[in-house]
Design goal:
Strand order of the largest sheet: 2-1-3-4
Number of strands: 4
Length: 165
């Protein structure tokens, strides 16, 4: 029974080492080469060891910079995730639909009808904590009798916001 546990532990350790090596073989090799060449340079002061020290040091620094940029406070991935998670702001496409048809709301689901209207699109950040209608500016066009404001999110879902005459 003890032998089975020992062999299971050995297999698990080998598997973890293989997984680590397959993911980090370049960084591990570069660190080993860097430390070995620095140690040998201190012993021999041979100019031949400059090249392995510089190349392996460069690889280690590139990995460090990559890790720092991915986990930085100012990283775009990190900050976008935090903004979406921690705040009430979200990016929407604002659609201003200008028409002379008073029955627009009844037929706006029809794609051909919708595309035959005069539509202006604008990307805008909307704050949920404030009145949404107040955040979208009404721009009058004298040749049209009605203006409808619609919001479209990233999933292409549309929300009706307001009607202006």
């Amino acid at each position: 029974m003890n032998e089975e546990k020992i062999t299971a532990i050995k297999l698990e350790i080998k598997e973890k080492i293989n997984v680590f090596w397959s993911e980090h073989w370049l960084l591990t090799s570069a660190m080993t080469l860097f430390f070995a060449s620095c140690y040998l340079f201190n012993l021999t002061h041979s100019g031949f060891l400059y090249l392995p020290m510089i190349v392996s040091g460069w690889v280690v620094v590139m990995f460090a910079l990559k890790y720092k940029s991915e986990h930085s406070l100012f990283s775009s991935k990190f900050s976008q995730k935090n903004i979406q998670r921690d705040s009430s702001y979200e990016m929407y496409t604002v659609l201003r639909v200008y028409t002379n048809d008073p029955n627009f709301q009844e037929y706006m689901q029809n794609q051909e009808y919708f595309h035959n209207q005069h539509v202006q699109m604008e990307n805008r950040v909307i704050d949920y904590n404030q009145d949404i209608e107040a955040q979208i500016m009404f721009i009058r066009k004298p040749e049209f009798a009605f203006c409808y404001h619609l919001l479209m999110d990233k999933k292409n879902e549309m929300y009706f916001i307001g009607e202006y005459v």
